[in-house]
Every structure is written in structure tokens, then in C-alpha cells.
Design goal:
heterodimer, A: 290 residues, mainly alpha, B: 309 residues, 79% helix, 0% strand
């Protein structure tokens, strides 16, 4: 039995790690390439950006794209490409960190609800439902509106919006995993609850969590962009993709590049996350395999 | 079955209470002291105490929460700090506009989404299928506000086919771009679900039977397969109606649509907290109410769900 389970687990993890799968799936390969490039861009922004993203140049206001400014300049003469390169740091950081932190909260509370059942489960599930009862962006707006807007408030708002979805998922997985023989066996051997949860249930839930997490990062990046657009995210002059669009939407007719390019950056990033998430789900989520 | 409906309605109450607890906590966390700002800078300590007593701010938190609940039960969500108008009056005044926009968006999303899903399923594995799947990934990935601005740029400013913004006294042309902008996200989901649901139906034996008795392929697809694929799609359409409130904040801002979303943004920009919290609370109420209705009607409509009970 144990052997079979190990094999199952190894099969899941191996599948994740085979490059052949990725290479065979062109869209997923491209998406992975885009994301790798994006991480590289965010890490080495100071080396890659042709200009200082904050440097205003009053001689070159609202220039259309040309050889010096590949994506043009904005209403304060700042280089748009450089601002998009720096903006990638905010989007990625908020998206990924919010996904990880909401996943952590979701895992702990979801496992507790699913494993202990009974009253604990009833109370926790009710709390999950309450958080899920809010339209996500409205709740994020409410949370970030009561804080000083910035990186921390955006991350906290998105985490508080996102954790309940993960918690419900983890609860469901835990409910089914705790009936497995190996969990029973480990309990019979006198393993502590936390050992059962973190050594037996969590590792087996990991592939599904990876899928859920990767599918949600894109949505989180969109919420961050929306908060920035509404003025509730990271504040100017720090460039974020959302605020670049909101600051210049009045120029949409005369200087559309100031709005189009940051939006393309968001779209390409989120599309890549979603394609990669779909790919992982097809590979790792047994419920999806028909 | 009635037992189920009653149970769902009962479960609805703690959710509503929970929502008010969260908005209450958010109100407590607001920066600045509302009492001090009401009293003004030169207020004496007694004045501040008096206002606190009037507002119930000297009472324990739990009592304050009960007072808050009582107000909400009466439909009182406070007054806007700027206009001094009742937030509840404003909400009721703006809500119909948002409903109109949401319904138009839903109509667009359902018609086009189901159409694309059917095409993708029937032409499975072809270029069309791939095009639809690309479109449906794109639809959930593009930021709503950017999509709105881009559509406005193309169709209103360059081609001049449609007005760029405003409500135009209810003329139909004004709702087209906002509805497309707001509906695209759910269009993508509808296309996706329709496709997979259609693929499942198309593999059923009764499809073979329909073909065998010589029905035209169009009839087989539309009458037999599509009809049986629609239940998950209809559920999705119903559940999504609540989430249009998310997109409405952004869409209405872009297109100057005088609904709840733009009202919320005005509140955000002016830090008008009663307005922000009013919209959040109202939005959540609408959202759970729609979910409840969809859930119960789903139960009545789909015999398979009933049998499982």
C-alpha cells in the first residue's frame, strides 16, 4: 500500500517535472518562457531599463514610440518602456506573494476544518462562506480603502480576498484524504495530529494546491492592477501598470501608447499565468482527466 | 425539496450577519476619528463626550455593533460626508442603472459565449476550436478597465461608430461599449463551460440515435445536444450576475455610466467612507441574494440534483 502511494506521489511529481510535457504543449511552453523572461526582467530591472523610470524630461512630453523611446514617453516625459519594466516588480510581487500568503492561511484553516469536522468545520466553513460572499474586488476596495494605500495594503487586501477560496478547496481535499488507509495507519501508529496533517495530508494535496495557486495568480495580478487603477494600490511616483493606465487615460485619444502598452503588459502576464495554470491542471488534477 | 429551500434560506442569515460583521470591523479600522472630525478642532472635551454619547461611541464594541445592525435593518447606511445625502437613497437611485448595464452585458455574454462554445465543441480540434480557447483565455486575462479604454479608442474615437461615454438619455448606442466591456470576462467562462458541456452531450448515445434517425446535423446539435448542455451554463450565468458588480466599478468609471460602480469610485477618490462601505455592504447583499436564488431555482429545475438528495 505504502509502496503504491509512494509511486502515485512520485508519478505526480515526476509528471510535473518532465520537460517533455511542457515542450509538447506549445502554448504552455511559450507562457512559461514569457513568465521566465518576466521574472528576469523584474529581478534585473535596473540593468534592463534604458532610462530612469522616474526621471522627468520636459523636452520630450508625450512622444510617440521611436528609436530612443521604444514605447514612447508619458505626460511627464518619462520613458514608458522603463516604467513598464519597473512596474513588473510590483505586479509579480503582489500577485505571487498574495497567492502564497492566502494559500498558507487557506491550507491551515482548510485542513483544520476538513480534518476535525463537526462544530469546528461548521464554524470555519461559515467563515469561509462569508468571505466568499463578497464580490472580490468590492471587498478588496473596502479593505484597502481603510488603510494607507501602498504595497502592503494591496497585498493584505488581496490575501484577505483570496484565502477563503483556497480554504474551501483544501477542506474538500482533506475530507477525502483523511479517509485514506495510510492516514488511518499513521494515526494507529500514534502519530500526532500535526504530523498526520503536515506529513501525510499536505504532501498529497500539494499537486492540487499548485494547480489552484497557479490559476489564481493571474486573477490576483488583475485585482492589483484594478486597485492601482483606482488609486488604492502602490502610490505614484512608483510605476505600476494599473496606475500608468489610470494616470493617462485622459490622453487615450491624443497619445494612446501611454495606455495601450501597460495594458498589454498586464494582459500578456495574466494570459501566461492562466495558460500555464490550465496546463498544470490538465496534468495534475486527476478529477480533470477524463 | 421545500426543506432544502428553507434550509438554504436559514443558512443565508448567518452569512448576512457575517457580512455586516466584516463591514463593521472595516468601519472601526477607518483612519481618523469620526467624532473629532464632526466636532471640529476647537471642540471642548465635553462636546466630544456628548457627540460620542449621541453616536453610541462610548458604549462597548458589541453594543455598537448591535446599534449598527439596527440602523442597517432600517436601511440606514449613514450620510455621505460630502453631499450629506443619505447613502441608501443614492444606492437605490444608482442601482437601476447598474442593473440595466449588467443585464445588457449578460445578454451579450450569453449569446456570444454560448455560440462560441457550440462552435468550438462541434469543430473540436480545428483552428476554430483553438481560436475560441485562445479567446476564452484572453477574455479572463485582459484587465476590464484597459479593455474598455481600448474599445473606446477603436470604436468611438477612431471609427466613430459609437459614442465614447455617457448615458445619452437611455439611447441604445451608449450601452453597447460598456456592455461589451463588462460582459467579456463572463463571456469567456460561458464559452468554456458550454464547450465542455457540449462535448459531453455530443458523446451520449441519444445523439447517435438522433443522427441514426436521419436528423440534420444542425438539428442534432442545437435541439438535442445544446438543450441538454445548458444547465451548467445557466447556473454559471446566474452566479456571474453578482460578480458583474466587480466589473461595474471599473466599467462605469471608464464610460461615465451613472451607476453604483462610479458612485463607489467617487467615494474612494474623496475618501467618503460611508459611501464606500455602503456600496461594499449593498454589493455583498445583492451577491449573496442572487446566489441564494440561483441555488434554490437550480434545485427545482434539475431533477438530477433532487434525486441525489
Amino acid at each position: 500500500m505504502l509502496f503504491a502511494l509512494r509511486a502515485f506521489q512520485r508519478r505526480l511529481m515526476n509528471r510535473l517535472l518532465t520537460w517533455q510535457d511542457l515542450v509538447a504543449n506549445k502554448p504552455a511552453l511559450i507562457a512559461a518562457g514569457v513568465l521566465a523572461a518576466l521574472v528576469f526582467t523584474a529581478l534585473f530591472a535596473p540593468l534592463l531599463a534604458p532610462f530612469d523610470p522616474l526621471a522627468m524630461d520636459l523636452d520630450s512630453l508625450r512622444l510617440p514610440p521611436d528609436s530612443a523611446h521604444l514605447l514612447g514617453t508619458d505626460s511627464k516625459g518619462r520613458d514608458i518602456l522603463s516604467r513598464i519594466i519597473y512596474g513588473s516588480r510590483i505586479s509579480l510581487a503582489v500577485g505571487v506573494i498574495a497567492a502564497l500568503s492566502s494559500l498558507c492561511i487557506g491550507v491551515v484553516l482548510g485542513m483544520i476544518a476538513g480534518y476535525f469536522g463537526g462544530k469546528t468545520d461548521a464554524v470555519l466553513s461559515q467563515i469561509f462562506d462569508i468571505f466568499l460572499a463578497f464580490p472580490s474586488l468590492l471587498l478588496a476596495i473596502g479593505i484597502s480603502a481603510v488603510m494607507d494605500p501602498g504595497l502592503a495594503s494591496a497585498m493584505l487586501a488581496i490575501t484577505l480576498v483570496g484565502w477563503a477560496g483556497f480554504a474551501r478547496l483544501v477542506r474538500g481535499i482533506t475530507l477525502s484524504l483523511k479517509e485514506q488507509t495510510y492516514v488511518e495507519a499513521s494515526r494507529a501508529l500514534g502519530a500526532s495530529t500535526s504530523r498526520v496533517l503536515f506529513r501525510h495530508i499536505l504532501p498529497n494535496a500539494l499537486p492540487l494546491l499548485l494547480v489552484a495557486g497557479s490559476l489564481r495568480v493571474g486573477g490576483f495580478i488583475l485585482i492589483e492592477a484594478a486597485l492601482s487603477f483606482l488609486g488604492l494600490g502602490v502610490q505614484p511616483p512608483t510605476p505600476t501598470w494599473g496606475s500608468m493606465i489610470s494616470l493617462h487615460r485622459v490622453y487615450i485619444n491624443s497619445a494612446p501608447w501611454m495606455v495601450i502598452f501597460p495594458g498589454l503588459a498586464i494582459s500578456v502576464t495574466v494570459i501566461s499565468f492562466n495558460i500555464l495554470g490550465d496546463f498544470l491542471r490538465d496534468k495534475l488534477d486527476p478529477r480533470m482527466q477524463v | 425539496m421545500w426543506y432544502f429551500a428553507a434550509k438554504r434560506v436559514l443558512l443565508f442569515l448567518p452569512t448576512l450577519l457575517g457580512i455586516t460583521i466584516i463591514t463593521f470591523i472595516l468601519m472601526q479600522a477607518l483612519p481618523g476619528d469620526p467624532v473629532e472630525s464632526m466636532a471640529g478642532e476647537r471642540a471642548t472635551a465635553e462636546t466630544i463626550e456628548r457627540i460620542k454619547a449621541e453616536l453610541g461611541h462610548d458604549k462597548p464594541l458589541f453594543v455598537q455593533y448591535v446599534l449598527y445592525l439596527k440602523l442597517i435593518a432600517k436601511g440606514d447606511m449613514g450620510r455621505s460626508v460630502y453631499t450629506n445625502r443619505k447613502v441608501s437613497d443614492d444606492l437605490l437611485q444608482k442601482f437601476p442603472n447598474t442593473v440595466k448595464l449588467a443585464l445588457a452585458a449578460m445578454l451579450f455574454a450569453s449569446v456570444i459565449g454560448i455560440g462560441l462554445g457550440v462552435v468550438a465543441a462541434v469543430k473540436r480540434g480545428t483552428v476554430w476550436d483553438r481560436l475560441v480557447s485562445l479567446l476564452s483565455v484572453g477574455g479572463i486575462s485582459v484587465p476590464v478597465f484597459w479593455l474598455g479604454l481600448t474599445l473606446m479608442l477603436i470604436f468611438a474615437l477612431y471609427l466613430r461608430w459609437l459614442p465614447p461615454s455617457g448615458m445619452g438619455n437611455g439611447s441604445l448606442a451608449y450601452i453597447v461599449l460598456p456592455a461589451i466591456t463588462l460582459g467579456t470576462f463572463s463571456l469567456a467562462y460561458i464559452a468554456r463551460i458550454t464547450r465542455s458541456s457540449m462535448l459531453e452531450s455530443l458523446s451520449q448515445p441519444y445523439i447517435e440515435a438522433a443522427r441514426a434517425k436521419g436528423l440534420s446535423e444542425t438539428k442534432v446539435v442545437l435541439k438535442h445536444a445544446l438543450k441538454n448542455s445548458l444547465i451548467p451554463v445557466v447556473t454559471l450565468i446566474g452566479l456571474d450576475l453578482g460578480s458583474y458588480l466587480n466589473g461595474a466599478v471599473l466599467t462605469e468609471t471608464i464610460f461615465g455610466w451613472d451607476g453604483l460602480g462610479r458612485y463607489a469610485l467617487d467615494g474612494i477618490l474623496k475618501r467618503d467612507y460611508p459611501v464606500i462601505m455602503g456600496v461594499v455592504l449593498f454589493g455583498a447583499f445583492i451577491f449573496v441574494t442572487i446566489n441564494l436564488i440561483v441555488d434554490i431555482s437550480y434545485h427545482f429545475l434539475d431533477p438530477r440534483v433532487r434525486v441525489k438528495k
